[in-house]
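Dataset card, provenance and construction

Sequences and ligand SMILES were collected as paired inputs. For each pair, a complete structure of the chain with the small molecule in place was predicted and serialized as structure tokens. The example below shows a pair involving 2-acetamido-2-deoxy-beta-D-glucopyranose. Curators did not alter the output after generation; any descriptive sentences attached to a record were derived from the structure itself.
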Amino acid sequence: MKQLTFLALSSLVSAQAAGYSQCGGSGYSGPTTCASGWTCQYQNEWYSQCVQSAAGGTTLTTKPSTSTTTAKSTATTTKATTTAANPSATSFATTNGLQFEIDGKTSYFAGSNSYWIGFLTNNDDVDLVFDHMDEAGLRILRVWGFNDVNTVPSAGTVYYQLLKDGTATINTGADGLQRLDYVVASAEARNVKLIINFVNNWSDYGGMAAYVTAFGGSQTSWYTNTAAQTAYQAYIKAVVSRYKDSPAVFAWELANEPRCKGCDVSILYNWIKTTSAYIKSLDSKHMVAIGDEGFGLDTGSDGSYPYSYGEGLNFTMNLAYSTP
Ligand SMILES: *[C@@H]1O[C@H](CO)[C@@H](O)[C@H](O)[C@H]1NC(C)=O
Ligand SMILES: *[C@@H]1O[C@H](CO)[C@@H](O)[C@H](O)[C@H]1NC(C)=O
């Protein structure tokens, strides 16, 4: 008798999936309804998950057919309203000792890079990236917050800033910063955190070379060129103002791999000081990172390239600076 009761109970329990458990997906044969207070939400062809009903996600208690048409329309209905397994944001990300703190949790967090996500023109594609990150347990994504050009590209190609003949024009249109707006909104919906970078050392997506074309000088004088720095700071202000209240921002990053070949290390140090203080004057709440590669180590040096100062960086000195 006892055994029968137990069997009956366990089959009752397993008839409903618990919170955050799988409840559907291709090849899945477990329960497809969720415990009371939870709703089965479609994530992708292979995975549906029980999310809190109050979250307002799309209800889908049965696995969608695997035909392309159904999968497509289902993906459309889940966009932007998706609530991920991640807890909702309660505070801005910060440091805690030698680790980071996200929503009260102190840890090392896994993350990834996607320079291209803000250049996508389809919202569903952006959502898909964050859905996959969420499934993989990745909390932080580093993205390009810049896309500089010297001539306006053909229609439908995203760019954020036009640098031409000594003038900088920020593109806040549908093919401009509105694409980055969507990245931030989609990250917010899934509580993924973003590292947003402001300029490239390299010429991909414009970078310092695009400033040099518009304002003169060279890549190494970029850091001290008044016209270039004025435009760079105006661009930083435009981006920071848009997202400074967003919990989706993990940190701002000054540049991608800033280098100043053959320069005295004081050049980059002073630029790091000035720029990070400027960002903090616009937004004192989010973290600011350099975006460098760690060149110029004083301790444990074996004299090889990464330890050297030839790229104009003194890691020890740069890291010691604490932005007010
Ligand atoms: C980036 O830095 C390297 C090393 O200092 C330099 O050689 C290169 O020209 C820089 N990139 C651009 C686009 O100027
Ligand atoms: C780098 O910075 C540290 C700390 O300020 C200093 O002690 C060291 O001498 C510097 N090294 C070079 C090569 O600039």
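Derived descriptions for this record:
The longest strand covers residues 38-44.
Residues 226-243 form the longest helix (18 residues).
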